[in-house]
Automatic annotation (TrEMBL):
InterPro entries: Trm112, Trm112-like. It comes from the Eukaryota. It comes from Pseudozyma flocculosa PF-1. The lineage of its organism: Eukaryota, Fungi, Dikarya, Basidiomycota, Ustilaginomycotina. PANTHER family: MULTIFUNCTIONAL METHYLTRANSFERASE SUBUNIT TRM112-LIKE PROTEIN, UPF0315 PROTEIN-RELATED. Pfam families: Trm112p (PF03966). One of its GO terms (molecular function) is protein heterodimerization activity. Belongs to the TRM112 family. This is Trm112p-domain-containing protein.
Amino acid sequence: MRLLTHNLLACHAKTCATTSNNFPLILKDVQLEQIEAEENEQFIRGFLPKLEWNALVSTARALGDTSLPDKGPDPSEPMLDEGLLRTLHHVLLEIHIVEGQMVCPNCSHVYQIRSGIPNMLLAEHEIGK
């Protein structure tokens, strides 16, 4: 699972259905792998407005990557720093979580990550209506 995916995931358990404290999911006991990916500046630029910057920075730092600045770039800025684009590419697309857990900061529900795939399925009694 890439950090790009992690930045989109939130807990949807019944106890979190009406709260905003269900994001970002906290990574725990993770096994990381670096996998090179072809650079695609247009993709990074297009995804930038969808990013939750503070969550991305805190997650990357929790995993030992301190390359992102505290303040994110303005997505509407036509000229983004090339170094920042490369750093974003690396953090979003080349850091892979192979195994581990994601824990909801609100309800402590644990989502497993196995073979790079996050299991976001909930049991019937955990589903919010």
